[in-house]
Design brief:
single chain, alpha+beta, Muramoyl-pentapeptide Carboxypeptidase, domain 2, 19% strand
């Protein structure tokens, strides 16, 4: 193995590894987003499973062009929580441990799930790859074989969208001077960034990141954006209603908030470090916003908390907004940062719909009967979007 030394930079609320934006997301978000993409099978001129594979390949090629060796990429696969990647021969690769093979899932009939891994391997060998065996179907490990076909993937990172460097400090903008809290965001950021949220591939290790009751990946934000927006555009082109198309992606973010945010706010680390700073639900909200700002999603700023009327969040350098502009021209649509909409709505539900402070059991039954129950549900709208050339994303949660 080479002496792999990842170049990790925290800038403007984003985390860059090898120059590419990475974001922490849980196995539940990865599973549901992948299922949304797969549900569009049958739309003309749209191959969702090919998209799930091929969207990964240009990102790995980008790292190769930046000087990454094959050993570097194998080690980074584990570091970012994707599992342990091993080569058997010129045509065959395995993942004895795999985030997508072991910790994601599908509703209904089990199916192969390691599309991202296949796209990763494609770049390593410069040939098209397909998953041959999958742990989701009972195999001991995931197996990938070359098809012998040359690669034909789209290098979709075509536009330059620099990060904003003059982001306002906490509460340092019009409309939020009324917000007071003793939650120390700097202390929380330091604590979260000091956690061992990375995978290992040494003997006996799995290359997975098991934390906060979920299994995390430090994923490529460009991958999420590519599979989400290409699928959304295909849905709209096929005539699916705009609101229904967007809701499928927003719901994935809502599920992510329930599992990831809920898991964080139920963790020993939360109760030891953050809860002592909190006197109210509003403080818990501020505490979770501080944690989010360590996850690579952008810089979240609370503009307003009046839960009987509205709750407003700005996000500077949101990975969805910045990522959209790295791939596509500016859009006229505002409700376009689907994860952000679902995540902010889910955080409001965790605190003001079900009250996470009472330590409920966060399982599927509770999600269906309480958290996602239409009764007392809040709504969310996006009023500003980086994808539409606004300075920030802005989300308004209201009853």
């Amino acid at each position: 193995m080479t002496d792999y030394q990842p170049n990790i930079v925290h800038q403007g609320g984003q985390t860059l590894i090898g120059g590419l934006s990475r974001v922490f997301h849980c196995n539940h978000y990865n599973a549901h987003l992948q299922m949304v993409v797969q549900m569009t099978k049958g739309i003309p001129n749209h191959e969702p499973e090919r998209l799930l594979v091929d969207a990964a390949t240009p990102l790995i090629q980008h790292l190769q062009q930046g000087g990454y060796s094959q050993d570097d990429l194998i080690q980074e696969f584990a570091l970012c929580g994707f599992g342990v990647l091993q080569q058997y021969d010129d045509n065959t690769w395995y993942t004895p441990h795999s985030h997508y093979g072991e910790t994601t899932y599908s509703h209904g009939k089990p199916a192969k799930s390691c599309f991202f891994n296949s796209g990763y391997i494609q770049a390593l060998i410069n040939q098209q790859v397909e998953e041959f065996e999958c742990q989701m179907l009972g195999a001991e490990q995931d197996k990938y074989v070359t098809t012998g076909q040359p690669l034909q993937v789209s290098h979709y990172l075509t536009l330059d969208q620099p990060l904003q460097t003059d982001v306002p400090a906490r509460f340092d903008f019009d409309g939020c001077q009324h917000l007071n809290t003793r939650v120390d965001e700097a202390e929380i950021l330091a604590a979260v960034q000091g956690l061992p949220l990375y995978g290992r591939m040494e003997e006996g290790e799995t290359g997975l990141i098991d934390a906060f009751g979920v299994v995390l990946t430090n994923h490529f934000s460009d991958y999420y954006n590519r599979i989400s927006y290409e699928t959304y555009f295909a849905m709209r082109q096929a005539g699916l209603p705009e609101e229904d198309s967007k809701e499928m992606f927003i719901q994935s973010g809502h599920i992510c908030a329930f599992n990831t945010f809920g898991g964080i706010m139920s963790s020993p680390e939360w109760h030891a470090v953050i809860e002592p700073m909190c006197d109210s639900r509003e403080d818990w909200f501020h505490g979770m916003i501080a944690v989010i700002n360590a996850l690579g999603w952008g810089l979240f700023r609370v503009e307003k908390i009046d839960i009987e009327k509205e709750l407003i969040i700005r996000v500077y350098n949101s990975y969805e907004g910045i990522g959209f502009r790295r791939i596509y021209p500016a859009t006229d649509e505002k409700n376009i940062s689907f994860l952000g909409m679902g995540g902010v709505l889910g955080l409001a539900h965790l605190l003001w719909k079900v009250d996470i402070r009472e330590k409920p059991t966060l399982n599927h039954e509770f999600y269906v009967t309480q958290f996602n129950n239409p009764e007392k549900r809040y709504n969310v709208v996006q009023t500003h979007a980086i994808a539409a050339n606004d300075e920030y994303d802005r989300f308004v949660v209201y009853k």
